[in-house]
Amino acid sequence: MKKRLTAAVMAAAVAATALTGCGGGSASGGGSSSGGNGGAAPAAEAPTEPFGDTIKYDPSVAINDGKDITVELWEWGSDELFQQVIDGYQAIHPNVTIKLVNNPWEDYWTKLPLALDGANGPAIFNVHNSYHENLINYMAPLEIPLEDLEADFTGVEAHVIDGKVYYIDYGMMTGAVYYNKDMWEAAGLTDADIPKTWDEMREVAKKLTIKDGDRLIQAGLNFNDDFHQNYLLGLNYQLGENLFLEDGKTPNVTSDAMKQVMQMLVDMYEVDGVGSKDFGEKCADSFGQGQSAMVMQWGHYYNTLNTTWTDINFGVFEIPTFDGNPYAYNRYNGESSFGINKNASAEQQAVAQDFVKYFLANDDAQIAFNLAMSTFPAKKSLADSEAIMANPSLSILSEHIDHYIWPGPMPATVETSLKTAGQNIFFNGMDVGTALEEAQQSIIRDMSSSSFTSVEHLYKYAK
Question: Which residue of 291, 318, 354, 460 sits 20 to 30 Å from the alpha carbon of 40, by its own alpha carbon?
Fold first, then answer.
């Protein structure tokens, strides 16, 4: 059954559409705002009956014995989105004040570990899995039973540490192809031409390319600045190769699959001529400025187009595959639930545990956060909700969402080293094999002291 979106959730999602997922940036300014139901915002309506799927939240249970208590929640994104959840919780528990503290992304990861290391850090904090190693030692495990988490949410198993879970994914973000509908029509293309394979993609890109002699006027496909994230770190899966070897620690970026993907990118520019390394520094900007016809971007780009590049008439389609029967379509990354500060007082931790349970059980909050981030819900019962299906960047994922892989919270060197490899190939004339070998050795050096172990073996269709 499709679940409908309430008016309150739609308002929260609209207010937060500028929120950027899987990366930096803040939709609202820095500083902090206090919790509570003051100001011009209408008071949240408090439910009286238990709600949720397997994880159920009972609003009749008193928190902190009904005595007043104040906790802080630190985040880096949209005050409006987080405040909606806080207001809903405080409507149930008026004795609890949750003070929302917004830190810019650039400062958040410096300030947060320092705060958590002391006695006065936030009881609740926003988590991004790319900073897992910096935060995990400050986190208290969730008190929700593992089997309940697994019953309601996808991908929980990958977050289990010694039988405990400290945070999970509420949403899954991955890549899709965004295309300019006006350019598509001008090239004589229709919906029937949406490519299913990379061979078809290359032919469509040629038709969308416009040149004046040798000068590129319109790129059919642009992947400048993003080839590492959207192609090298995902299309290898289509060809049956993981990013890490069986030990889960050794990178596999010199594989035949990675070389094939990289060579395809080179050929698209140098043989097909559908784009150029010199045609726009960033493909995302080039598409938004109406200079490129197609780009592959992660889900947050949907919101960027709707808030920054509003003149672009765009559509979205799922990533093509090499043969129509991929091992996996691509990788995904999760947007994380809140962390709980193990150094907070027992009373504050109890509030934090209860707040996380409220957030996970609350369908309206789950949908609002996923729409704001343009992530596909990890909560299984929301996969076909009306609101999610209305977002084309999410609805196109619904059929194959279980064919996307999360490798785990990879150290940043995996991305940066592959980005350097691509730059060496396109700008320094280095051959594909040498560039990928240098990336391999760089990742090995940088990960020598890392505790990271890939969770690719937990993929549903893992070989």
Answer: 354
Give 180's strand partners. 314
Rounded-to-integer distance, Cα 327 and Cα 405, Å: 10
Task: Give the chain's length.
Answer: 463
Summarize the confidence of residues 296-301 as an average pLDDT: 95
Whole-angstrom Cα Rg for the chain: 23
Residue 51 CB partners (closer than 8 Å, separation 6+): 57, 59, 361, 362, 363
Residue type, 231: Y
Pair 404, 331: CB distance under 8 Å: yes
Q: How far apart are CA 422 and CA 428, in angstroms?
A: 9
Phi and psi at 75, nearest 5°, equal: -150, 170
Short-list 238, 214, 227, CA closest to 283: 227
Kind plus residue range of the DSSP H or E element containing 194: none
Whole-number pLDDT of residue 44: 66
**CA gap 89, 79 in Å, rounded:** 15
Rounded average pLDDT over 122-142: 95
> Using an 8 Å Cβ cutoff, are 177 and 346 in contact?
no
**Residue 230 and residue 221: Cα distance in Å, rounded?**
13
Q: What share of the chain is helix, strand, coil (3-state, %, to 5)?
A: 40, 15, 40
In whole angstroms, what is the distance from residue 92 CA to residue 255 CA? 54
Give the residue from 237, 201, 236, 239 showing the smallest Cα distance to 222. Answer: 201
Closest residue by Cα to residue 432 from 243, 216, 219, 265:
265
Residue 432, CB half-sphere, CA atoms under 13 Å: how many?
16
Q: Is 47 exposed, middle or buried (0-12, 13-18, 19+ CB in 10 A)?
A: middle
Contacts of 101 (CB under 8 A, 6+ apart): 32, 72, 73, 74, 75, 122
The H or E element containing residue 16 is: none
Residue identified by tokens 């909700």 is 385
pTM above 0.85, yes or no: yes
